[in-house]
């Protein structure tokens, strides 16, 4: 090493970044405003008056040194540029809730509780036996299960309302969330009864999962690649509803084969279209909870 460069390296003092003095309460205010339809509703959610909410958020802006809101008429709206601050607030609140629950369990000597989110296919088709085995092996752990679409589950997970989620792999990484692959699931095209599944250009119109769902993204990408028409006439998060719409002749659909072809009202003669990846998602920096680790191992068991 050059003597001069070595001397400069040894004498280098890293710049100390001055961190803003933010409070958990201010971050709660910000998330409440982002998730509530009105300012008054956001204030009610966090249990303060609208004026106190306004003062708290003004102080948050002052401490950050960045404007987070635009004034529209008599109300204020979050700027698009505030999205990273809102995402950070959700992660901090989630991790702080983890810490509070861990400390509470330690103080009370409680045996534990796991809040699990699952999409319907995971809960009723792929993993009911895994959950039963977990309950049998860990009877002292309270297991709370919430069934919802993938996007909703991941939002609840990030905000700290779930400990883990079994869902469709998101199209892009989510800050603060780690996923581990569990299972690949086949998706197939189904047409109304009596209709043969011919070339893709003859398919449709469609009854599909709602726009914005992870499965819908997989389906639409593959239909576009095949050149199939994409007229959507109805949407539902519930596979049973989509299945009945196909039976009634409302349109065509794409469903997980395990759900479409199950039961006495099953759809028949589906054509494989694509696959979706089911994952288990946890918060990246969450305090390790042995109960959650036990459940993940049960879900990964083959």
Structure commentary:
With 302 residues, this protein is of the alpha/beta class. The chain folds into three domains: 24-87, Winged helix-like DNA-binding domain superfamily/Winged helix DNA-binding domain (Arc Repressor Mutant, subunit A); 90-182 and 279-300, Periplasmic binding protein-like II (D-Maltodextrin-Binding Protein, domain 2), CATH 3.40.190.10; 184-278, D-Maltodextrin-Binding Protein, domain 2 (3-Layer(aba) Sandwich), CATH 3.40.190. The chain is 44% helix and 21% strand. The chain is built from twelve helices and ten strands. The protein has helices at 3-10, 24-35, 39-46, 50-64, 83-108, 120-126, 128-137, 150-158, 214-226, 239-247, 257-260, 290-300, and strands at 69-72, 75-78, 113-118, 142-147, 164-168, 177-190, 206-208, 232-235, 253-256, 271-283. The strands form three sheets. The protein has a six-stranded mixed β-sheet with strand order 4-3-5-10-6-9, with helices on both faces. Strand 7, helix 9 and strand 8 (232-235) form a beta-alpha-beta unit. Helix 2 (24-35) packs across helix 3. The protein is globular, with a radius of gyration of 24 Å. The model has no long low-confidence stretch (mean pLDDT 88).
């Amino acid at each position: 090493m050059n003597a001069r460069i070595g001397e400069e390296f040894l004498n280098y003092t890293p710049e100390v970044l001055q961190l803003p003095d933010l409070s958990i309460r201010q971050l709660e205010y910000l998330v409440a405003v982002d998730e509530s339809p009105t300012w008054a509703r956001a204030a009610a959610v966090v249990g303060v008056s609208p004026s106190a909410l306004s003062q708290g958020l003004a102080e948050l802006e002052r401490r950050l040194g960045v404007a987070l809101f635009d004034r529209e008429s008599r109300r204020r709206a979050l700027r698009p540029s505030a999205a990273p601050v809102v995402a950070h607030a959700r992660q901090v609140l989630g991790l702080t809730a983890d810490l509070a629950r861990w400390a509470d369990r330690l103080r009370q000597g409680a045996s534990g509780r796991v809040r699990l989110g699952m999409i319907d296919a995971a809960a009723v088709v792929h993993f009911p036996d895994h959950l039963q085995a977990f309950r049998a092996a860990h009877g002292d752990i309270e297991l709370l299960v919430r069934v919802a679409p993938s996007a909703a589950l991941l939002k609840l997970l990030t905000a700290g309302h779930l400990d883990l989620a079994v869902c469709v792999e998101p199209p892009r990484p989510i800050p603060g969330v780690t996923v581990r692959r569990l299972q690949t699931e086949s998706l197939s095209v189904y047409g109304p009864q009596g209709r043969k599944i011919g070339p893709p250009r003859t398919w449709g119109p469609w009854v599909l999962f709602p726009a914005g769902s992870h499965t819908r993204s997989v389906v639409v990408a593959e239909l576009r690649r095949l050149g199939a028409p994409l007229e959507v006439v109805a949407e539902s998060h519930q596979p049973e509803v989509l299945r009945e719409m196909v039976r009634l002749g409302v349109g065509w659909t794409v469903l997980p084969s395990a759900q479409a072809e199950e039961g006495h009202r099953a759809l028949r003669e589906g054509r494989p279209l694509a696959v979706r990846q089911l994952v288990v998602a946890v918060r990246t920096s969450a305090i390790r909870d042995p109960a959650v680790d036990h459940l993940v191992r049960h879900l990964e068991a083959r």
